[in-house]
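Request: Mind sharing a record?
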Amino acid sequence: MTADLLLFALAALLLAPLALPRLRARLIALARRYDPRDRADTLRNDILDVPMGKEHRDRLIGALDLHEHTVDEIMRHRRQIEMIDADSPPDAILTQILASPHTRLPVFRDSDENILGVIHAKDVLREVDRLVRIEGEGLAALDIVKVAMKPYFVPETTALDEQMRQFLKRRTHFALVVDEYGTLQGLITLEDILEEIVGEINDEFDITPRSSALTRTETGDYLVDGAMTIRDLNRALDWSLPDDEANTIAGLVIHEAQTIPAEAQAFSFHGFRFEVVTRRENRISRLKIRPL
């Protein structure tokens, strides 16, 4: 497994700017003398000894750390998944697909626990073109379930490096995450895993960049989205908040407070002050954080 981690780490380096010939030479030399029987932390320590910028070191360490984290730590929670109701009228389904920023959408019937498949926008458009232009049957004949691909489910405990290998093996990059009871928990994509290595990836279809989840105020405090992961926050600000008991900042505050705090409540732990700015129902959606 560690040999695969080395390959991931070296692949991450390929995403670095080309103006790093000395750094590349040092890492290639490191790879040549590397024994696959060594532990990952041995390789990590060697990398830390190589002079390089924080961005490049984060990429390499991020690749090495994939085996230590599971898909439930970085998945998109089920609350955030956009889905298509198979019983919706065909014209409403087509409107939703065209308006969505996502090219792949799960299809359900009756309950979002009953996932029938996953559609790709291009496949749907091909089917609409066939029905309207070629067959002359019209949009009303669209059966979204027949267009959908078989859903790919993965356990929430799957390690990230293993999930990356499975994505490459299956030639897909979209999976639905379930718990031990088969209950839908979220979804994960290959891009999510790559972002653990190279950082945030934004394209023209991203509605809101993840960087907007973190803003600094004039007073030096940080406004943080409660759903932001602890790993993302640590990486962005070079902090070291623990992520053993929770994946998100909101989860960390709830764990430490042993309750769901009300708005304006503040707590101090791990060398930081946390204040709840916005709470919606039982969910902390916005916090203010300041180092002490």
About this structure: The first strand starts at residue 76 and ends at 77.
